[in-house]
Design brief:
heterodimer; A: 260 residues; 83% helix; B: 428 residues; mainly beta; Pectate Lyase C-like; 13-stranded parallel sheet; 4 helices; elongated
Chain lengths: 260, 428
């Protein structure tokens, strides 16, 4: 499996799109740092980008990569290799290269701006961590969807819909539930709903790390109590890992059953 | 003849009056200085006070004096040389002043001790006038300076430091009750429940003070009218300033900084009328100004920078005019809980107003700006929706509401938003 990871990783790192993706982060974060004098504000802007763009790019890129390397995958499968290690290897290489572009693209400008000694260093690390987790989980979802659907357009559409659902529709559902049940205490409902969506989970984790949590009043206090304690941190890490492991597991299952 | 007589008479008269005046002045100038110290005439302040006449000075030399409580019943000047320490031994009030025209200066007063029964204080002034408390150092006082029923008092340049941990067992640094014509100038108050507390205090000035790290409010007004507070700095308090049930309050040139926390405010206004809030700076407060039941008040020329909410103006407010302010990088600029608006918001600079343009180049944006976002309106009705903050959905919904307002107050609008920041030349 390591061999496949290595192969697809180096293949992707040399590709045009990874470099563009890297340059995009480098340019955007330098621009943000340049235009806003305040580090907190920059971190918040970066957070907005991370929350919206990482899932979108990971999903699109993952789907395209599978469909593009399909013929090569078929060729490799003709050799005596395990299906699961081939698929997981390709996925691993993809997720690694996406994370690397993101981490490098963000780190270089921020290091140059002196994040190391800044009070926001931990927040920055948190953004890197959640961004990496999001890359891994969303590209797993993309790979799984693409494997499942032979029809490129259908696969692509479903991937995009999953992104749209997790990024926008899901929050709409939360809002609807909170409005419907506003007579009741809805805080634990909100926490559970948040844990079930990787994008929301990342957003809330980063926000609680920044001191924006004071703006969230009572809800913020409840959230901080949950996500900031010994009970909450393992649960949110676990939930994030499930969002990586579950699509990866399904991916292997689909690949094993699939008639290439 | 009659003319010279008149002149002579008037000369004589002025001579008599001069002699009378001289006697009066000499009487007051003829005042003794009583020295207190280990090897001095008096060993204790109490002993010196007993011997003193009105108008005498008592010079307290270096040393530690454990003789609290000390009652000052004569109009004396009590001044310290080389910071003499008056110790309350965590048990007593230290100075209780019952006489008019007392000056207390250069003393260090410490260890008053917590009481749940009485409001113990380091310096207490009871029913007197024309006193001055200047340049003292108060350390670990339960209440610092406590005035009740006083007039014409100056409290200046004192350093009042406490170690309050809980609201329930801590006192206020400067506490005024039923007073008039008081000046509080250049003090430092920290680590108490309220920094400066005024209840039924009229016609007074609070200026140039630094108030920080207090548990509840930096400055707290209750039922106090026609007061001014100018050029103070309120930093890191539970709430910077709370002004409640008062009218004709003039607030100018103050700095409210980092009053941050889940229920912290820069300036909390409740039932205020006919007041002015001008040229203040609100920076990094959870809520810059929180207004409830505020009427006929001008909010002009302030800077609101990097606050959570720059202003929360509730539906119970009317005739507030907000103009000429800079709203810079706040998470929310204006929030309200009512779908009607009786206040005006014209002529401000909003850093979030990025879609505006100015074709005729007069510095005023050609399209009106709506400072209330749907989401901030939503939060004020349903607290738990704050978990959706900075979600993509919220951005979309805000944008839709901005184009065609349905839920937010349709007339809460800045008709002449400014294109660039107003540069107020500020020293602080």
């Amino acid at each position: 499996m390591l061999k496949f990871i290595k192969y697809s990783f180096f293949d992707l790192v040399r590709s045009y799109w990874t470099i563009i993706y890297f340059l995009f982060y480098a340019i955007v974060s330098s621009a943000i740092l340049y235009f806003s004098a305040d580090m907190t504000k920059s971190i918040v802007s970066i957070m907005n980008i991370v929350i919206v763009l990482i899932p979108l790019v990971s999903i699109i890129f993952g789907t395209i990569y599978y469909y593009n390397s399909r013929e090569f995958t078929e060729l490799l499968l003709a050799q005596p290799v395990k299906r699961s290690s081939l698929i997981l290897g390709q996925y691993g290489g993809l997720a690694l290269s996406l994370s690397l572009s993101f981490i490098a693209g963000l780190s270089i400008p921020f290091l140059a701006a002196g994040i190391l000694g800044s009070e926001h260093f931990l927040d920055f690390l948190l953004i890197l961590l959640t961004g990496t987790c999001l890359s891994f989980s969303m590209s797993a979802i993309a790979y799984m969807t693409a494997l499942r659907h032979e029809n490129k357009i259908l696969g692509f559409g479903i991937s995009l819909f999953i992104w749209f659902f997790l990024a926008v529709i899901y929050d709409g559902l939360i809002l609807l539930l909170l409005v419907l049940f506003r007579e009741y205490p809805t805080d634990s409902l909100a926490i559970i709903m948040t844990l079930l969506n990787p994008i929301d989970l990342s957003r809330v984790t980063i926000m609680l790390g920044l001191d924006i949590s004071a703006l969230m009043g009572y809800t913020g206090a409840v959230f901080l109590k949950f996500f900031g304690t010994i009970k909450g941190i393992p649960i949110s890490i676990l939930s994030m890992l499930i969002w990586i492991a579950l699509p990866a597991f399904l991916m292997v299952r689909i690949a094993n059953k699939k008639d290439f | 003849m009659s003319k010279t007589h008149t002149i002579l008479r008037s000369e004589r008269m002025s001579r008599t009056s001069f002699i009378l005046l001289f006697l009066a002045v000499a009487g007051s100038i003829y005042s003794a200085t009583l020295e207190v110290g280990v090897d001095k005439q008096y060993q204790t302040i109490t002993a010196a006070l007993e011997m003193a006449e009105n108008g005498d000075s008592i010079m307290v030399n270096e040393g530690i004096y454990q003789e609290a409580p000390i009652d000052v019943k004569k109009s004396v000047v009590l001044y310290g040389i080389n910071n003499p320490v008056l110790d309350g031994e965590n048990e007593y009030e230290i100075l209780r002043v019952y006489a008019d025209s007392v000056v207390i200066t250069g003393l260090t007063l410490k260890n008053v001790g917590i009481s749940y029964v009485e409001d113990r204080s380091a310096i207490r002034l009871i029913k007197n006038k024309a006193c001055k408390i200047d340049g003292n150092h108060l350390d670990k006082a339960f209440f610092g300076i406590y005035l009740e029923h006083c007039k014409n008092i100056v409290i200046s340049n004192n350093i009042i430091q406490g170690e309050a941990k809980h609201e329930s067992n801590s006192g206020n640094a400067i506490h005024l009750w039923y007073c008039k014509d008081i000046v509080i100038d250049g003090n430092l108050a920290e680590g108490h429940r309220d920094g400066i507390y005024l209840e039924f205090v009229d016609n007074s000035i609070v200026k140039n003070n630094t108030v920080r790290n207090n548990l509840r409010y930096g400055l707290h007004f209750m039922y106090s009218d026609i007061d001014r507070y100018l050029n103070n700095r309120f930093e890191n308090n539970g709430a910077g300033v709370a002004v409640m049930f008062s009218k004709y309050i003039h607030m100018e040139g103050n700095v409210f900084i980092h009053n941050w926390g889940s229920s912290a405010y820069g300036l909390l206004l409740k039932e205020i009328t006919d007041s002015e809030i001008i040229h203040n700076r609100f920076e990094q407060n959870t809520t810059g100004i929180y207004a409830e039941g505020v009427n006929r008040t001008h909010i002009h020329g302030n800077d609101f920078a990097r606050n959570g909410w720059a202003m929360k103006i509730l539906g119970s407010c009317a005739d507030i005019s907000v103009s000429g302010n800079n709203f810079l990088y706040n998470s929310f600029d204006v929030s309200t809980n009512s779908s009607r608006n009786y206040n005006s918001y014209d002529g401000n600079f909003w850093s979030e107003n990025t879609s505006g343009y100015d074709l005729d180049r007069d510095g005023i944006c050609d399209v009106p700006y709506r400072p209330v976002k749907l989401f901030s309106f939503m939060i004020s009705h349903m607290q738990s929706t704050t978990i959706l903050m900075r979600s993509l959905l919220i951005d979309l919904v805000n944008y839709a509401e901005k184009i065609a307002p349905v839920i937010t107050p349709h007339n809460l609008i800045d008709n002449s938003p400014l294109m660039s920041r107003i540069d107020y030349d500020r020293e602080n």
